Inverse folding.
């Protein structure tokens, strides 16, 4: 496995209700501290830097490259017009090219799950509505479908947009390209150098053999496969809930609370990560990125009812100075997953060095 990484959100314009970006509190000091955590303690050699703010993307990608981390740069804009998303991608591509020519090991990802996050490909005015429509037949609490998605009819529209995105990226960046796709997206991978899979979007839990078959169905393209993101939340039944691990929060109240019957369990999350890393090793993927390092919109609380980190994929917990204020300063503490992934990555890195493996 060449790339042993983690996803790092610099602030994305999701509709979280906690500010314009998913990281209301941001500083270069926090960012540098968290990148050091990735390179020095998680033993990662790669980081996926994603988000909406181009200045944050530039600062983070530059700092990551200075730490000798390989960078997957992924601009994300949610619910914006397609022309604006393509312009945003062009700016990110020029940033990536400047870093590449300066010696950084960097690849460009032209976004993630555009079928969901980008308007005009499937029905739905806002991404939560499109998500509900994609999973219209699934068992969940919070999503209300307004239509069923015809994925066959959507495929040409997705292909047309990805073709434009690849053309914009290649016009401004001379390195390798990827896209991070969900299982329900029919992608023409000829546009890209790497196949990226957003593995947390699977609607049901799978056996080891089913996971190997799911990854294996992309082999026909003859290109290296990346697990662009994978993970689960921090309670015992999260793996069985597959994509709907997050659907355990009652947001109808003034203060969101964890639904009854769900208890924090860091060991369960850690066991899932180790099992999946072993499966991905067996599948001989080119790399993985755990999703994700930190999730400040889901702060930890010692009150189990308020502990939103229970519903988070993050491998460190965010402890705010003021729990109720998204812009509050915070500190982080590694979870059990962090330590076990760090051990796995350290062992994999030792093997790679002694077998002559290196990042291209």
């Amino acid at each position: 496995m060449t790339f042993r990484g983690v996803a790092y959100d610099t602030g994305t314009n999701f509709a979280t209700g906690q500010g314009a970006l998913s990281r209301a509190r941001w500083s270069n000091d926090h960012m540098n501290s968290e990148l050091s955590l990735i390179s020095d303690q998680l033993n990662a050699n790669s980081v996926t830097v994603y988000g909406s703010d181009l200045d944050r993307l530039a600062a983070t990608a530059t700092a990551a490259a200075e730490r000798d981390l390989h960078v997957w740069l992924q601009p994300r804009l949610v619910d914006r017009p397609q022309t604006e998303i393509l312009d945003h991608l062009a700016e990110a591509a020029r940033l990536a090219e400047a870093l590449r020519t300066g010696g950084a090991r960097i690849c460009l990802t032209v976004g993630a799950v555009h079928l969901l996050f980008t308007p005009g490909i499937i029905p739905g005015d806002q991404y939560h509505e499109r998500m509900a429509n994609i999973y219209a037949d699934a068992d969940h609490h919070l999503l209300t479908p307004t239509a069923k998605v015809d994925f066959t009819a959507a495929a040409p529209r997705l292909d047309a947009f990805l073709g434009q995105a690849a053309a914009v990226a290649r016009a401004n960046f001379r390195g390798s390209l990827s896209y991070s796709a969900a299982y329900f997206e029919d992608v023409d991978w000829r546009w890209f150098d790497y196949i990226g899979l957003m593995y947390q979007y699977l609607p049901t839990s799978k056996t080891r053999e089913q996971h190997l078959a799911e990854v294996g169905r992309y082999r026909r393209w003859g290109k290296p496969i990346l697990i662009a993101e994978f993970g689960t939340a921090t309670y015992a039944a999260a793996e069985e809930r597959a994509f709907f691990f997050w659907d355990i929060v009652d947001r109808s109240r003034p203060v969101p609370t964890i639904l009854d019957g769900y208890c924090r369990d860091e060991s369960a999350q850690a066991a899932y990560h180790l099992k999946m890393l072993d499966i991905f090793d067996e599948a001989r993927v080119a790399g993985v990125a755990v999703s994700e390092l930190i999730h400040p919109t889901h702060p930890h609380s010692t009150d189990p009812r308020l502990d939103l980190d229970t519903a988070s994929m993050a491998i460190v917990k965010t402890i705010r100075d003021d729990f109720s204020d998204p812009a509050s300063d915070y500190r982080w503490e590694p979870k059990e997953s962090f330590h076990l992934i760090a051990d796995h990555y350290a062992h994999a890195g030792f093997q790679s060095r002694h077998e002559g493996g290196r990042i291209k």
